[in-house]
Design goal:
By secondary structure, the protein is of the alpha/beta class. It is built from eleven helices and seven strands. It has two domains: 243 residues, Spore Coat Polysaccharide Biosynthesis Protein SpsA, Chain A, CATH 3.90.550.10; 83 residues. 57% of the residues lie in helices and 12% in strands. Strands 3-2-1-4-6-5-7 form a seven-stranded mixed β-sheet, sandwiched between helices.
């Protein structure tokens, strides 16, 4: 790893001129990462000279905060549990020109940070995601997590039209305008999903960099619960799809109820036309109710689509206002 850090230092020296003197903040949300946090802080301080490393101690019961402070990080404590809440607080409190978000478990390659920052700044992007490559090491990337990641990547591609390379990557670089216009709502590990969908819906310029992914060191334990957090991520994806694409979301329900209502009601309707009698009242009432529900869902979709368009325009205006401020300040 020493040779890797030395390589990163050389890359960082080249990247520093590309950054044009921009302030770089490395954001490290942590909970009980005493085994790894010191190394993470020192590695990023080495490969990104002049950066400020912020460690947010999310209610740790070990020495995470003290060790991070001893390694040179600026440490703040957040008692409310959940990575999403920590990231929201970080984005609100910290002022910089470039932000690098990374987990404190030492599974991400610090030497990739200069390339990520350089790609962000040279191409005027708003987000660069590190796509994890475990190089076939099963200890680094559990099979269940690998399959789940691919499934959610495919789901996002189906719902939003663009398939990300690594939806759940916790290693990303951001522009200031992205961070300060991002309306974070997540509480837990679903924050990565929200970051990706926000970029997709706002059509923000983004990029990806393939990086190595390592297994956790001995004594370090993952906080991710495969089934619980997977369910929360799926729920968040559904909520974001409802909020961002309400006409498609509610229209699907309208189509379903209409199809069932027509299937049940067509025989009753034909019978009424031929005999002027309705013999199957329960079926007729059910079919009528389903068709009314279909029209209600369709109406909700149309109304909420206009609301969503207004929200999207407000977020775009906030983003453009920050971009204008950056240009006037010469950044």
């Amino acid at each position: 790893m020493t040779m890797e850090i030395e390589t990163g230092v050389a890359a960082a020296s080249a990247a520093r001129s590309a950054r044009g003197g921009r302030r770089v903040a490395v954001l490290v949300p942590c909970r009980n990462e005493a085994v790894t946090v010191e190394k993470v802080v020192r590695d990023f301080a080495t490969v990104l000279p002049g950066c400020t490393v912020y460690v947010y101690d999310n209610g740790s019961t070990d020495e995470t905060g003290a060790l991070a402070r001893g390694a040179g990080a600026t440490v703040r404590r957040e008692e409310r549990p959940g990575k999403g809440g920590v990231v929201r607080r970080m984005f609100g409190e910290i002022d910089a020109d470039v932000y690098v978000l990374v987990d404190g478990d030492d599974t991400y390659d610090a030497t990739a940070a200069p390339a990520m920052v350089r790609k962000l700044t040279d191409n005027d992007l708003d987000m660069v995601t590190a796509v994890r490559d475990d190089e076939g090491r099963t200890d680094a990337y559990r099979r269940g997590h690998r399959v789940g990641n691919r499934a959610f990547n495919a789901l996002l591609g189906l719902l939003f039209g663009v398939r990300p390379g690594d939806l759940f990557s916790g290693y990303r670089a951001f522009s200031r305008r992205f961070v300060k216009s991002f309306p974070a709502a997540s509480q837990g590990f679903e924050i990565e999903t929200e970051l990706t969908i926000h970029a997709l819906e706002q059509s923000l310029p983004t990029g990806e960099v393939t990086t190595r992914y390592f297994e956790r060191p001995e004594g370090s334990r993952s906080k991710l619960s495969t089934w619980r957090d997977g369910a929360r991520i799926l729920l968040m994806t559904g909520k974001l799809y409802r909020d961002e694409r309400p006409f498609a979301f509610f229209g699907a329900f309208a189509l379903l109820f209409a199809a069932v209502g027509l299937t049940l009601g067509i025989d009753v309707t034909i019978e009424f036309i031929e005999t002027h009698l309705v013999r199957r009242f329960p079926t007729a009432i059910l079919a009528t109710g389903l068709m009314l529900l279909a029209f209600m869902f369709l109406g909700c979709g149309l109304i909420l689509d206009n609301v969503s368009r207004g929200r999207r325009e407000n977020k775009r205006l906030a983003y453009l206002a920050l971009s204008a401020l950056e240009r006037r300040s010469g950044r």
